[in-house]
Amino acid sequence: MLKRLGRSAVVQEAAGSLLAGYIRLVRATNRWTFDPPDLHDRLVPELPVIVALWHGQHLMVPAMKRGDMPARTLASRHADGGVNAIACARFGIGAVRGSGGSARKSARRGGAQALRAMLDVLAKGESMVFTADVPKVSGRAGEGVALLAKLSGRPVFPFAVATSRIKTLDTWDHAAINLPFGRGAAVLGDPVRVERDAGPEALERARLAIEAGLDAAHERAYLAVGMQWTRRGASRAAAEASPHA
């Protein structure tokens, strides 16, 4: 019965609206810094771009979007993907439905169709923002992000958002629930570019560069709010967080 309720359009709409409202609350009640300070302007000459995230660290990303930068996200076909898509829509972010994984799972989840749809989105001048992890394998970028960069010719920008007050869940991605009334930081990493004629070795180098860029961006974001970033999606408070948190 709970699964059926979760698939209900009415329930998903209500949950998505509540989630968007919570994200706005956290955005409004934290003191934010940006690294670099002009991170949005840095993206303008590169648009459209691919923005890569780590799963479980992406709650506040929709609230970082600037209004003049059209973007879409990749949302799974599951009920939670529907809720996330509705929440993102409240921030002007559309959704492409589907997810990756192994060839068999990707076919079932709509991975191939999603890749084609994302290529169409980028070709129309809209950016794509989505998590880079292999499904259920936190902290390992999948090949799909690098492949999308190759086929589209668009750069990949690692991106991280952290807050000084969080609740870390006991999930596969150690999901961080950002809390109100603290400090927040958003960090944009250096772009990773993939040549259109890139072979398997070049794609693997790009995949590893995206992983390293995501870890570096999260390390900077967490440090900025007095926290310590730990590899593979887990986050822990620094031994002595800033008293101004």
Automatic annotation (TrEMBL):
<dbReference type="InterPro" id="IPR007172">
    <property type="entry name" value="DUF374"/>
</dbReference>
<feature type="domain" description="DUF374">
    <location>
        <begin position="68"/>
        <end position="136"/>
    </location>
</feature>
<protein>
    <recommendedName>
        <fullName>DUF374 domain-containing protein</fullName>
    </recommendedName>
</protein>
<dbReference type="Pfam" id="PF04028">
    <property type="entry name" value="DUF374"/>
</dbReference>
